[in-house]
Design a protein that fits this description.
The protein is α+β, with helices and mostly antiparallel strands. The chain folds into two domains: about 170 residues, Muramoyl-pentapeptide Carboxypeptidase, domain 2, CATH 3.30.1380.10; about 50 residues, no CATH class. Strands 1, 2, 3, 4 and 5 form a five-stranded antiparallel β-sheet that branches. Helix 2 packs across helix 4 and helix 2 runs parallel beside helix 6. The longest helix is centred in the N-terminal third of the chain and has 16 residues. Bound molecules: zinc ion. Zinc ion (ZN) binds next to strand 2.
Length: about 230
């Protein structure tokens, strides 16, 4: 079992020169993924425009597979606003790019769990892109285009504050968030309000072996356990 410090140290080389919000987001993502039994490693961080051009040439004017659609200056990596991740295998050395791997054995692909957690932290995920899916890629754009960033625009002080509040869990509602576990494995998340926990009934029921149907006419959620 890898310790959190061992997992963190694997990413240290890529965390330099990131925007402070991205750095905070990356650190939180490593930590929260670890808490779910998913060690991850940051495999790319800040990339200079020259490095980006070299990467763009790969598969076009240089050998290899195409790995990016972004020319130098047109990637959020070039402004320290993006990171790439992969799964870290239990040996603590090798990485996995298998987006179906279920290393923590909770029947949900680890990669999806990391992506969901990243989105909760405020990242946009390259796996949601429609044209060129980039499953490793996470970015925060703050509504700025890469042209604006190249011209020197920066996220505003308020945007930085708001983003850090989300990452640090102080966003509205964050204090009510709870996780729901079954025999120690997370099955869903929910909200605790005035002593009552609200959680998606399907996730809870199915985890307990019941099936769920909804009758719209009587507005009834029906749980059936054979
Ligand atoms: Zn990327």
């Amino acid at each position: 079992m890898l310790t959190l410090d061992q997992v963190k140290s694997k990413s240290a080389g890529w965390l330099g020169n990131l925007h402070p919000v991205i750095l905070a987001g990356a650190s939180a993502l490593i930590q929260r993924s670890y808490a779910k039994g998913i060690p991850i490693v940051i495999t790319q961080g800040m990339r200079t425009i020259a490095e980006q051009n070299a990467l763009y040439a790969q598969g076009r004017t240089k050998p290899g597979n195409i790995v990016t659609n972004a020319r130098g200056g047109t990637s959020y990596h070039n402004y320290g606003l993006a990171i790439d991740f992969a799964l870290l295998l239990p040996d603590g050395k090798n990485v996995s790019w298998d987006i179906t791997r279920d290393g923590n054995k909770d029947t949900i692909a680890d990669w999806q769990q990391v992506a969901q957690e990243a989105k909760r932290l405020g990242f946009a995920w390259g796996g949601d892109w429609t044209s060129f899916k980039d499953y490793s890629h996470l970015e925060m754009t703050f509504g700025l285009t890469t042209e604006q960033l190249r011209a020197g625009r920066q996220p505003t002080v308020q945007q930085v504050k708001d983003a850090l509040a989300v990452i640090n869990g102080t966003a509205p509602g964050a204090d009510q968030a709870v996780v729901v576990t079954l025999n120690g494995v997370q099955i869903t998340s929910g909200m605790l309000e005035n002593g009552t926990t609200y959680a998606p009934v399907r996730a809870v029921a199915e985890a307990l072996g019941a099936s769920v149907t909804y009758d719209a006419a009587s507005r009834t959620v029906k749980l059936v356990r054979e």
